[in-house]
């Protein structure tokens, strides 16, 4: 499939919690070649460097006019790359979308506000012969699936990548692990449960937070069974949403129920004191979230993954050592250290995977010496 070129709108939110869709697309997409980000607060920077990562060759522009003035060709798509709590876009954002349409750009929208049901947008799209795609728009009720129990036929490990909060790196960890497993010879399938994963090109999944609650569990089950039947995978990874403990969202409960997960990898941002977008709600501890997950489901947490937001490299290493000592679970930061600890944990918990793993010379010795892939214990400070 030929990727479409795309400009991603993320004004004043790129690299922050509400900009997670734009960040995800910068890191990975099978559907789009990202040619620029719109964020006036970071204009002039490279998108990768703005995230504290390697240069990726994706410039950040101050405005749509700025981008179109510097790019050699008009991008094929304009992606609304923010995920705010607000229920509707601002007038300024509407104007930008209309300007993008006038330039011949298709509109890709990940919000709950469906642009394809907006009379002005529909009229302008027809006039300029462009398409509007609402990623979160659910299928017709007649096409939705209730829970059937068919998931009992799935005989490969199903692992959910859950978290302790929203926008803490669950999808990034799941995709990094998916890629690592594929590189080491396992047939992994990634199940998307949110708009960003679908924009990145996931073949299976649905934005579950846009569904009538009765169908959430069934749609997750359906996606997993479909992937199992059609792909003959060795393992299925399910993207998490929000957190089981989060009072504002139900998504993780639906994921645990619909997937009947055999194991959970838990993502946590240690420096975060309060819930994303909820400054009066304190974050849970990792131990609290593990207890909750293992109380309400049969799944066991098999590894911890960290978001290094607002942490130094040295602090991350200290936290890894502390968690591995206190929780007795392999812990890593996949963006900094890769996924070898997670691969080792999966092989330990699901021995049927081990014979299919292609040896990785760079990681072979450490993992052979320490099956959990634990780092040396550091002095706490």
UniProtKB/TrEMBL annotation:
<dbReference type="Pfam" id="PF07755">
    <property type="entry name" value="DUF1611"/>
</dbReference>
<dbReference type="InterPro" id="IPR011669">
    <property type="entry name" value="DgcN-like"/>
</dbReference>
<feature type="domain" description="D-glutamate N-acetyltransferase-like C-terminal">
    <location>
        <begin position="147"/>
        <end position="343"/>
    </location>
</feature>
<protein>
    <submittedName>
        <fullName>EBNA-1 nuclear protein</fullName>
    </submittedName>
</protein>
<feature type="domain" description="D-glutamate N-acetyltransferase-like N-terminal">
    <location>
        <begin position="41"/>
        <end position="138"/>
    </location>
</feature>
<dbReference type="InterPro" id="IPR035086">
    <property type="entry name" value="DgcN-like_C"/>
</dbReference>
<dbReference type="InterPro" id="IPR035402">
    <property type="entry name" value="DgcN-like_N"/>
</dbReference>
<dbReference type="Pfam" id="PF17396">
    <property type="entry name" value="DUF1611_N"/>
</dbReference>
<dbReference type="InterPro" id="IPR027417">
    <property type="entry name" value="P-loop_NTPase"/>
</dbReference>
């Amino acid at each position: 499939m030929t990727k479409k070129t795309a400009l991603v709108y993320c004004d004043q939110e790129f690299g922050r919690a509400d900009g997670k869709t734009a960040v995800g697309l910068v890191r990975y997409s099978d559907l789009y070649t990202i040619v620029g980000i719109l964020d006036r607060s970071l204009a002039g920077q490279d998108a990768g460097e703005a995230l504290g990562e390697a240069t990726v060759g994706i410039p950040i522009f101050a405005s749509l006019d700025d981008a179109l003035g510097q790019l050699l060709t008009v991008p094929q798509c304009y992606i609304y790359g923010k995920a705010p709590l607000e229920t509707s876009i601002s007038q300024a954002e509407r104007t930008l979308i209309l300007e993008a349409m006038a330039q011949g750009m298709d509109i890709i929208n990940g919000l709950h506000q469906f642009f394809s049901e907006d009379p002005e947008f529909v009229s302008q799209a027809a006039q300029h012969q462009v398409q509007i795609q609402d990623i979160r728009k659910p299928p017709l009720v007649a096409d939705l699936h209730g829970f059937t129990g068919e998931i009992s036929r799935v005989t490969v490990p199903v692992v959910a990548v859950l978290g302790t909060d929203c926008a803490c790196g669950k999808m990034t960890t799941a995709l990094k692990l998916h890629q690592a497993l594929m590189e080491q010879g396992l047939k992994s399938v990634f199940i998307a449960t949110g708009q960003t994963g679908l924009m990145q090109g996931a073949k299976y999944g649905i934005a579950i937070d846009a569904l009538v609650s009765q169908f959430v569990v069934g749609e997750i089950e359906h996606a997993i069974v479909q992937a199992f039947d059609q792909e003959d995978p060795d393992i299925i990874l399910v993207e998490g949403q929000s957190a089981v403990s989060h009072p504002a969202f139900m998504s993780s409960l639906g994921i645990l129920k619909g997937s009947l997960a055999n194991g959970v990898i838990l993502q946590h941002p240690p420096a975060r004191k309060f819930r994303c977008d909820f400054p009066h709600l304190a974050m849970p501890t990792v131990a609290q979230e593990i207890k909750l997950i293992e109380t309400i489901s049969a799944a066991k947490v098999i590894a911890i993954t960290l978001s290094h937001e607002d942490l130094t490299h040295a602090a991350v290493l200290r936290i890894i050592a502390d968690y591995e000592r206190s929780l007795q679970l392999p812990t890593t930061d996949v963006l900094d250290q890769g996924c070898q600890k997670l691969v080792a944990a999966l092989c330990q918990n699901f021995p049927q995977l081990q014979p299919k793993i292609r040896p990785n010379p760079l990681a072979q010795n450490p993992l052979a010496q320490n099956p959990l892939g634990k780092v040396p214990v550091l002095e706490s400070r």
